[in-house]
Amino acid sequence: MDGEYRVTEPTETAETPRWEYFVTPLLLHNEAQILNNWGAQGWELVQIIEGPAGGNVAYMKRKA
What we know:
With 64 residues, the chain is α+β, with helices and mostly antiparallel strands.
């Protein structure tokens, strides 16, 4: 198989995770409590960025 490469297309299987996403504002005085509440419901923090109107926005995901 020297010099020969095989390209396979990814296929969807039962092992392929599916995600749902959620975006929520983070109040500056309660960040940890807000994130812990979402975490208790199975949400994982992906990123925090500054929102378009100012303030922080958290992007969350969890398996669907």
